[in-house]
Amino acid sequence: xxxxxxxxxxGIEIYERNEKKYIRYxxxxxxxxxxxxxxxxxEAAKAQLGPEYAYEVIVKCEKVRRETGH
Length: 70
Known about the structure:
- This protein is of the alpha+beta class.
- It has one domain.
- The chain contains 2 helices and 4 strands; from the N terminus they run ββββαα.
- It has a 4-stranded antiparallel β-sheet.
- Strand 3 and strand 4 form a beta hairpin.
- Helix 1 crosses helix 2.
């Protein structure tokens, strides 16, 4: 499993692994809690545009995660 860092800035990292993209970010408030979520290529591109776009992608992914339990 080869992992390649695609982007790193404003508190997020985007990785590519097995031709899939993942966003990593600190979801903790008091204690660091690194969370990784699979995202689409479109979401990865959007998250790289700026912190507000990255936040939108994270919020959308978190909502889906809560709704599906994954």
